[in-house]
Amino acid sequence: MEEDARMENKTLTGKEGRGQQGVERVYKNDEIAVYWEPGLCIHVGNCFRGLPKVFDPQTRPWVAIDADTADRIARVVEACPTGALHYERLDGGEQESAPAETTIDARPNGPLFVHGPLKIVEVGG
Length: 125
Known about the structure:
The protein is of the alpha+beta class.
């Protein structure tokens, strides 16, 4: 692992309603920073099936940020159904963006993955 590729803890900013504040982990190099919120992760496995050289839950640190290109890492991070993984491009590459429309992915005998803006209103208002 290169010296500039490191993991650090980071306090959540602007996401106070997500996960547990203060436990987000950051794995970064000069091209991309990958953020992981363990409290949101339900271990679906899209990350380690998509790029097993980068995402390996059996090793520490479990994200080897220099093991593939920033473009490929970004594509796999975008496939995280829970939002536990997200990224920031540091090399001028296209940034991650929120979905424009809401989609719901129902898994057999499993959770509903909701992506995009969603407003839940209680009965009566």
